[in-house]
Every structure is written in structure tokens, then in C-alpha cells.
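Record format v2
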Amino acid sequence: MAVATEAITVRHLSKTYATRDGAVTALDRTTFGIAEGEFVAVVGPSGCGKSTLLKILAGILPASSGEALLRGTLIAGPRRDIGVVFQSPVLFPWRTVLDNVLLPVDVQRLNRERHHQTGIDLLTLVGLKGFERKYPWELSGGMQQRVAITRALVHDPAMLLMDEPFGALDAMTREHMNLELQRIWLERRKTVLFITHSIPEAVFLADRVLVMTARPGRLLDDVRVKLPRPRPLDVMNTPEFGAYARHIRHLFNVQGRIDA
Amino acid sequence: MKSARNVAVTLAIFVGTLALWEGVVRVFAIPIFILPPPSQVAQALWRGIASGVYIHHLGYTLVETLLGFIVGSLLGFFLGTAVAMNRWVELFLYPYIVMFQSLPKVALAPLIVVWFGLGLTSKVINAALVAFFPLLVNTMVGLKSADEDRVSLMRSLAATDTQIFWMLRLPNAMPFVMAGLDVAMIFALIGAIVAEFVGAQRGLGMLIQSMNFNMDVSGQFSILLILSFVGLLLNRGIMLIRKRIMFWDPSEKQVIETSPEEAAPAAGRGVVTPAKEGVG
């Protein structure tokens, strides 16, 4: 892949929280880059600073030192060219599905008329055609998370940040959503940073898996997953897939802890 | 079928209670100025309504209550918003508010009648004073209770504080505000009646007071009936408004077919935080 345009550049990024027992380093001098259109998963045990990393990239948490760049410009605060998907769908119950999807459009005072069709097209893409006028409470958990993904895409951001988006779903729905996310990604080719606890999920979805250590969060390995796409769920039963998963799990075992 | 039977049972219990009451009063020959039988109360009610006296006084009490309710809840809402949204207002004003809140407001009624006279003003002020606090407290809590994940989402979209207020905090506070209005409505009625007790020329509270002097207990009972009916109607009115504004609140729906797990948080009155999971 060409190094010409790097979507995300992270250099010596650290984050220290002041707590009652002194300073705690959540993220320690982390450096990596993500190419344009690349799908990168971050796995690591609880407390490895994955969420901290995502919040810094989303611009809602300042870094203690080091820097993060999006398409060459410093991330110094919330940005309009980033879409975030959280673990819970975080929908507004008083808005219809389409109005939830158009929330970024309303917040950023973009043209609602113009994005109306974009919203409907995206809802069709995630398989929610005909649900535009429903309310979130009328949808299942998996469907709500699809709405959240649609909302993160509607203002055509440069980058999609996903913080364990399927962590709250049951195993069956989760597998299905993994397939769906791959399909959506193959169609849109957004740059994605995907945080997860699940090694199989990371290997299944990502071009690269960044493996992190716990306290202080540090980059342990950068595993390139060379499985052909589109990957069917059956790929998880192949020896190649098993080798990737085993390698990553081994890294954790060497580290001595995994509590995912 | 089942609901028809329920109505029948309810009716039977109601009629049975009245019959028992009437019977006890007659058998034990309880004097009418201690406990009048239902038949006497019904007569008094009919006389009062037919002569137009009750309607006349009810009109005054209703106007006092509604004006007090509107003034009190508007003030409560705006002050609650100011306290919730501005650190300085909270710091300097809130201690006084808490102090004032612990005071039984109806105890101020005599003072207010002295200050503002026997007319409408003192009743409206007293009603407003009592209706004010439920709105103040509920607005405050509602605005501050916005889900952290939702605030993070808004921040990640580069939303301004004003946008977060209008698009998230305010709609999020509506269940609390509506619960506050619910209470404030009844409180306003109490405030108006108490102020009428203290000193008034018109109103149902004044009527009860004068009937008490004349030992007309049947009359008092008949007015209590009217007051509880009025309270019920006012409460229904608020519920209708609530249903319209809060169409999205799960607690407004009887049965949710598609996602039953969402119906659970409806239990806490006015508190709605659906599908909240900690972010790892």
C-alpha cells in the first residue's frame, strides 16, 4: 500500500491521568500510522488504553504528550470529519431513525435536504430500508447499532472510529454484524479504527491488528492479516485464521495477562 | 370481557361502601354535624350546584390555581435551568433555594394575605410558591441527568454547549419536567385553597371555611367531592399533555412488542435511560 496519504498518524502519544494514588499512564508513547482506506483493529486487555486512544483521536480528550494527525492536520479538538460509533448505540429516543442518522447534519448545520437522500441510501446499505420513520425503541439491539453506524457515516467523514461497537450484542448477532460491517466497508472503503476485546473479531475484520499491552498501554505488535476478502464466516475455521489468532493470543500470554 | 367485569366489581365496591356508610350513620345515629350520611352529602351537592353557588366559587378557585400553576412552574423551570447550566448561579443561589425549600410553604399564606390582600393576587402568589419547587428541582435533575455517552457523542460531532442543551439536555429533561408539572398542578390547588382559608371573599376554600363556622358538614363533604374531582381533572389534563410531548418515552406505552428489554427502565417515574452500557 502506498505511504503517500496517511489517514492517521500517531506519534509518541501518551496520556496520563491524575488519580488519588498518583499519576496513571493509560497510554505510553504509542506510535503508528493508518493508511487511507485501511481497516485497523486494536486489541488488548482491559485498561490497555484502547478507549483512551479512541477518545484522543475523536478529539474529546486531550493527549498528555505526543501528537495525533488526521490527514496531516493535528487533532486538537472535536472534528467534523470523524465518525464515532460507541459500544451502546447512543440513539436519541425522541428522534426517528432517519432523524437520528441526520444528527451530525443538524449539529454541523449542513444542508438537510441534500443529506436526506444520503441518509436513506445509507440506511438501505445497512439493511434498514423502510425503517426511516420508526423510533429507536421499535428496533432490536443489532438494528440500533446499524443506525449508529449509519449516523457515523452520513456526513462522509474521513475516518470511522469504532469503540467495541458489537460488544453488547449476543454472539449470533455479533457474527452477523461482523459480516455486515465487512460488506459496508468493502463498499465504502472508509478508514476504520476498530477497538475490540475479541481476537477472532479483530482478525476477521481487519487488515492490520494492533496488539496492546495493559498499564501502561503500549503497542506490542502490528499484525498484518493477509486473508482474502470478502471473508466468509467460515474463514474462522481455516488454519491460517487460527494461526493469526494463536499468534495474538500468545502475545498476551507472554505478557502474562488477558482478561477479555 | 375482563374489563367489563372489572368495571362491575369497581362499581359494586363503590355502591357497597356508600351503603355501608349510610347504614352505619343511621344505625348508630351519628349526628349530622359529625358525619353526614352519603344521601345528605348528595343533597348538599345538588343544592350547591343547582343554585350556581358552587360553580361561581369553583371558577375563582380554578383561576387562582391555574394562574399560580403557570407562574410557579415557569419560574421554577427557568430558575432550574439557570441553576443546572450555570456554575455561578448554582454556587450563590442554590443554598438559599435549599433553605427556602425546607420551609413548609403553606406556612407563608397568612403573611402573603397580609401583604397582598384578600383578592386574587395573594392566592395566585401562594399557589405559585407551592408549585414552584417541584419544577425547579425536577428541571435541575433532568438537565443534569443527560447520559454521558450521549454527551460524548455530541462533543465528538463538535457540538456547541448551546446545541447540546437544545438537542440533548432539554428533550432529555422532559420526563422529569412533566413529572414536576404533575405534582405542581396539585400543589397549586393546595396553595390556592390554603390561601382562601386564611382570608378570601370568594373560592371553594372560603366556602369550606364559612360552612365550618355554620357546622354544615354535609356541605363541606360535598365541596371535598368537587375538589377531588377537580384535582383528578387537572391531573388528567397534565397526563394528556404529557402523552403528546413524551410520545417517545417507553413509559407512555402499554405494550412494546418489538423490544421488551426497552420497557424495563420505564419503572422509575420519569427516568429514562434506555440501553446504557459502560464503555470499556
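Chain B has two domains: 7-32, 37-250.
Residues 161-198 of chain B form the longest helix (38 residues).
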